[in-house]
Amino acid sequence: MEGVFTFFGAINHSHGFIFTAHVLLTALLALVLAKMATKSLKLVPTGTQNVMEAFLQGTIAMGRDVIGETNANKYLPLVATIGIIVFIANVIGIIPGFESPTSNINMTLPLALIVFVYYNFEGIRKNGVVHYFAHFMGPVKLLAPLMFPIEIVSHLSRIISLSFRLFGNIKGDDLFLWVLLMLAPWIVPLPAFLLLAFSALLQTFIFMILTYVYLAGAVMLEEETL
Q1: pTM, 2 dp
Q2: Domain of residue 114, residue span
């Protein structure tokens, strides 16, 4: 956000530089977190390993009800990686002097495109091109010319839904924090930090669960037709 102090902005005022620096910082923190969790694996986990194992188990449990345990484990690397990246990117903006990369559409849109391309790829790979796109035509052949373009638009709208929901919510949180810090920069904003942390966690959960839902809709066509 223009006019808001950031540590990277003190180096270079270019918005592109500030955004890129925060994206790289997010990636670096994610790598450091992964390294800390795996550097000394123990049978009885402690510290960072314990937190990460709890996160991974929670991610699998989340996907189990949506896509089944086998597929939840299969797509765990994608969903968990997205979850870690999105959560770190969301939380960074709560810390004064930093900016959430997810408050920029240039980060949320590529994340949404990754999910969009991947779930369609998985749907085609598992069901075949003909069967996968035949599903877009609906169960009634007479309505196929109407249903097919509606389904195409519906799937394309998922890109907007994923990217703009995350971008809009985190941007709004950043603006709220900015205004609050200008009005009351000391003790008063402390409860707001808890609210913003919850919002960061909630938006991460929504992005992850929608990824599982879209994957389920692409790879479980047989179950849908039963």
Answers
A1: 0.89
A2: 15-40+47-225
